[in-house]
Amino acid sequence: MNWDTLSQSNLETILHWAEDQPWSQAMSQCVQDADWHAEGDVWTHTKMVCRQLIELNEWGDLSLQEQTVLIFTALLHDAAKPLTSQTDPDTGRIRSPKHAVKGEHLARSILRELDCDLETRETICRLVRFHGRPAFLLEKSKPEHEIISLSWLVNHRLLYLFALADTRGRSTDSMSRPEEHLRFWKMIAEELDCFEQPYPFANDQARFLFYRSSEPNLHYIPHEDYTCTVAMLAGLPGSGKDTWLAQHRANLPVVSLDEVRGELEIHPTENQGEVAQVAQERCREFLREKTSFAYNATNLSRPTRQRWINLFADYGARIEIVYLEPPLKTILKQNQQRTKVVPEKVIQQLAQRCEPPTSTEAHSLVYSRS
Known about the structure:
The protein has helices at about 5, 10-20, 20-30, 40-55, 65-75, 80-85, 100-115, 120-130, 145-150, 155-170, 180-190, 205-210, 240-250, 255-265, 275-290, 300-315, 330-335, 345-355, and strands spanning about 85, 95, 230-235, 255, 295, 320-325, 365-370. Helices cover about 50% and strands about 10% of the residues. By secondary structure, the protein is α/β, with parallel strands linked by helices. Helix 7 runs antiparallel to helix 8, helix 10 (about 155-170) packs antiparallel against helix 11 (about 180-190) and helix 14 (about 255-265) crosses helix 15 (about 275-290).
């Protein structure tokens, strides 16, 4: 089955399909801590959560798209437990540290193979990544900041409904975190006007500064007076970044890592220090001149993007991230048409590690599959 078929199917059909997948079979063999999950293995819990979803009072009010998102969030929220579970040798307790972090990457890989559309895929992946947060809200020193921060990453209404199903989808009622914690999450999100939409920051600069500050001030309204605009391209080799620039930002000068490598005759597998230094200096020249430009590189990880964003922000630039991700088969085909072809194995590896950008990183974000 592909995504188009699965997204139109009912829950039982999706579960029947999932039973044969290697990731669900791994879950069925992964035991859980009995104090938290008396129902048994991870796959048993997963099926219980899925079925709790359709029992929610709010289920009938959701669109088919929202129902599909929640079903696949439930299917994949604990899919990385087989990769992370460990038994404490002293207590015998089973823990699965960072299973949500690894689960985001695993979910992205599974959904990419199904050719799930980019926006839906990332919605599901971020719900998988943050699915446990509502239950721990009372442990946060600033609950409001936690909810505001996540509102630009997930839809709180969907996160709340999933958390309800996750709490109810187990047999150990005494160890389930109280649903009152989840309702507290909902109440605060509603008060902050971000239960069904991202938090309404005063402007893009206010949002940008919020995510860059360890102690953000929600009452501060910064003046938007940018020196220039930097369009940061991101995407796998062969995703069409040059073509996008030619079609949408043809008037901008471009700093391209590929071009710098070519000029310096440095292969992508060699040390990239000199390449980065030259590219940084070219960016600084435009920034000092207050000239808008595009920065073109793969930029596939958040830490890599952050280093460049810090540079642009230091000069007061407005930063736009453009993330391109056509279907993988299209990327591989376009890669073969490049002057310098990247080995397919390398592209596959990059795809597995890719962290698509979010609206928390820049002033604006564009997602494109073409």
